[in-house]
Amino acid sequence: MIIDRDGNITIIAQEKASVKTLVNNIEQAYDKYKNYHLIIRLSSLDKISLEDIIEFLRLSNNHRADKKSFVVVSDQVDLDQMPDEIVVVPTITEAYDIIEMEDMERDLGF
User: Fold this and answer.
1) Which domain does 54 fall in, by range?
2) What is the per-residue burial (b if ≥16 Cβ within 10 Å, else e) of 53-87?
3) What is the pLDDT at residue 49?
């Protein structure tokens, strides 16, 4: 697990371990990340299934309930199959755009 900070955004990248292991690692260290918007970059993993993305659902829902953005980045998934409850985008640039839009929505009270 590789962790990088960019202002109020934490980017977590996964290299080799399974998605389930990554989710467990994030949940165990969640206090370190709870005050930041989270980008989970899965770009280095070869094959990612819908079930892998669903592993992040509980973590995403909890994080978003605290008024923080949670975005998964992967170009290895069919975006049409992703549940509406979790934000999945193909590039890191789009993840930053989503966070910026969600920040504006929160500022406007949506």
Assistant:
1) 1-6+21-83
2) bebbeebbeebbeeebbbbbbbeebeeeebeeebb
3) 86
